[in-house]
Design a protein that fits this description.
17 helices, 534 residues, nine-stranded mixed beta sheet, alpha+beta, binds glycyl-adenosine-5'-phosphate, 28% strand, single chain
Length: 534
């Protein structure tokens, strides 16, 4: 796809997106983009793909293909594979854990390090059993197990869906009963007592709220954040990492004085955030039409209050910062709100195989702090300097399912290079390996320079050294796992002390001085410079 661009007196035609290797493929892809835009204004040509030299085109992938790809390339394996696997449990392989850690680090930077008002926590996975009585999880954290009368598939539905939904095949569900999602365990050898693995990380933040406020000298409004493993005894764990029994949630509780209705942080940057909204009334009417709106409009329509609007916008901005734009916000109907929430929004992502919830944003009010105060007898009030009163704060909770963010990034990145090869078009900051270094051929002098470069770059980045196979094979191997840059040492490197650096998406190569390499790589990885600019 090309676009006419005026540069001074000259009009040139610029490449804006690669749509396929022939006209038929390009027409098909173009029709698909238009259809998607009409459907929900979900643009498939996003900020990233506007790059002039991007030769890649996103390739559709099914969940089964994704799982196979992840196994073959060392991203994710079935847990206990030698025993045939264990339903609902997965292992991150060497590339998967690098990528997953990068996502977690991006989240931590965005919501904690770049801010003054949010601090981190790593609470224990098992806490006092009364935690879960107070939080309402023992009583309410249940799913309804159902089996389709027609295709016999066993699955779970939400309590609010009983009698309202059918199986995908059209068959009616037979109710098999309600099951707790909480994982029970025993603590202690003698007189062991029942305990639970946490079903969400949130309770750690509520229980430590006063300790953190005192030790970190935080003033309202402030937040406590953590990323960690959660456990849910899912009735039907399936669809790869999408629904597992052990997974990671990143979430934070943002504490606000209940009197504080105005959010000083809410500005145009948040109000203008674009939203594809599926509102509650549309769902009640049995429809799924999306509205193209903004956070500002949602606020005007009183779908949420100012602080809730601010955090929903920041949450969308984080997904966008990772290149994820195909986002839809679903407002919860009153009859499906969690036991702790007065307003909730799901953040769904348009995967090639359908829409899936990535995260949520709930207005938890004072529910949790009041419940813990009642159950523990501890006064959960703190002194608010601004209002000069003691208060139990209210809470806004943005939640992120980290496995689903990982899967969204992988499916978004899964691309064809126009020659039938798979290239993982991951943002460089998310790629498991930041650069691969190759001696052009096996020669001691080339290998010496390559070794020195690897040693130096490894001080800062995850770097691969690859000297086996043809250069083309080495590029292909790295393209497939998303390595954004390949550095080659050749004859000229000996004479001129420079190397070639190759950009994954455009396959363009440039020569750069070895002494400038680290700085250039840093700028490219942190998106401070584009490849065209170096
Ligand atoms: N503290 C709020 C909370 O836990 P949730 O909607 O129950 O909210 C948060 O879970 C996110 O965790 C979901 O939006 C989803 O992305 C992810 N998630 C939930 N159950 C999951 C499962 N069984 N496997 C993988 N991810 C899951």
């Amino acid at each position: 796809m090309r676009k006419s661009v005026r540069e001074g007196k000259k009009v040139t035609s610029k490449h804006v997106a690669y749509l396929g290797s022939n006209k038929e493929e390009a027409d098909k892809k173009y029709a698909e983009i238009i259809k998607n835009q009409k459907k929900g204004n979900l643009s498939m040509i996003n900020e990233e793909n506007k790059s002039v030299n991007n030769l890649l085109v996103q390739k559709k992938i099914s969940i089964e293909e994704l799982s196979k790809f992840c196994k073959e390339k060392g991203f994710v394996f079935r847990s206990s594979d030698i025993y045939g696997g264990y339903a609902g449990f997965w292992d991150y392989g060497p590339l998967g854990i690098e990528m997953f850690n990068n996502i977690k680090q991006e989240w931590w930077n965005f919501f904690i390090h770049k801010r003054e008002d949010v601090v981190g926590l790593d609470a224990s996975i098992i806490s006092h059993p009364r935690t879960w009585k107070a939080s309402g999880h023992i009583e309410n954290f249940n799913d309804v197990a159902v089996v389709c009368k027609k295709c016999k598939t066993a699955t779970k539905i939400d309590k609010s869906e009983v009698g309202k939904v059918n199986c995908k095949c059209g068959g009616e569900y037979e109710i098999k009963g309600e099951f707790s999602l909480m994982f029970k365990t025993k603590v202690g050898a003698l007189d062991a007592s029942d305990a639970y693995l946490r079903g969400e990380t949130a309770q750690g933040m509520f229980m430590d709220f006063k300790l953190i406020q005192q030790t970190s000298r935080m003033q309202l409004p402030f937040g406590i954040a953590q990323i960690g493993k959660c456990f849910r005894n899912e009735i039907a764990p399936r669809e790869f990492l999408f629904r597992s029994r052990e997974f990671n949630i990143a979430e934070f509780e943002f504490f606000i004085n209940p009197e504080e209705k105005k959010c000083e942080l809410l500005g145009n940057e948040q109000m203008n955030v674009k939203v594809n909204l599926l509102d509650a009334e549309t769902q009640v009417a049995g429809k799924d039409t999306l509205k193209s709106t903004t956070i500002g409009n949602m606020l005007k329509e009183k779908r949420l209050e100012e602080w809730h609007a601010y955090w929903l916008a920041e949450q969308i901005k984080w997904y966008n910062s990772m290149g994820l734009y195909e986002i839809k916000i679903r407002e919860h109907r009153k009859d499906e709100l969690s036991h702790y929430s007065s307003a909730t929004f799901d953040i769904d992502y348009e995967f090639p195989f359908g829409s899936v919830e990535l995260g949520g944003n709930a207005n938890r009010g004072q529910y949790d702090l009041k419940q813990h105060s009642k159950e523990s007898g501890e006064n959960m009030e703190i002194f608010d300097e601004k209002y000069k009163t003691k208060v139990i704060p209210r809470v806004i909770e943005p939640t992120f399912g980290m496995e689903r963010a990982f899967l969204a990034l992988l499916t978004k990145a899964y691309s064809d290079d126009g020659r039938g090869n798979i290239v993982l078009n991951l943002p460089p900051k998310i790629s498991p390996v930041k650069a691969a270094v190759f001696p052009l051929v096996k020669r001691e002098d080339f290998e010496k320079i390559a070794g020195d470069i690897v040693k130096d770059l490894k001080k800062e980045f995850n770097i691969a050294y690859d000297k086996s196979g043809s250069i083309g094979r080495r590029y292909a191997r790295n393209d497939e796992i998303g390595t954004p840059f390949c550095i080659t040492i050749d004859d000229d490197s000996l004479k001129k002390k420079d190397v070639t650096i190759r950009d994954r998406n455009s396959r363009v190569q440039k020569r750069v001085k070895i002494k400038e390499l680290k700085e250039i790589l840093r700028a490219l990885i942190n998106s401070e410079k584009t490849f065209e600019e170096i």
